[in-house]
# Entry
Amino acid sequence: MANPLCIWFTGLPGSGKTTLANAFLNQLRLLGIQATSLDGDEIRKGLCADLGFSLEDRMENIRRVSELNKILLNNNLTVLNSFVSPTNSIRQLAQQAIGENRFLLVFVDAPLEVCMARDPKGMYKDNLNKSANNFTGLGQGFEIPEQADLHLKTNELTINQCVVQLMELWNLKSMNE
# Structure
């Protein structure tokens, strides 16, 4: 039996985190694997609606999400997380809270220009000309993950190619824990 895992998709807004998480979730469910998905935009509408985008608020957002992950994992659900989580310290907070043996980091990588061109929610357009800007990629930086378990270049790979690589990683890790 496969062990449940937290798969943490990080990357710039528009890089493809949610798209890949949803495609991978469908694949896992087709295989009969119990899984769910948490999306940063949806979490901020409810559980973290009281938080902004300062570094402190981002840390609290991820702390809450990490606690939710632990509950879901303890109920044998694999959890796919789509969060910008722009700094290594934020991602390390999640990994430490969830547990290194249950946490896989996936860097969803696309150049800023590609993310801006995709802009499915109009976020770059809405934030482009703001002077005080906490938007990741514009006013706030994004740190490349120091130790990602998988690096997916979504401007070079198809969704299906990415899902194949995710499945290989999941099979390797979920059967060995």
Remarks:
- The chain is about 45% helix and 15% strand.
- Strands lie at 6-10, 35-39, 78-82, 103-109, 150-153.
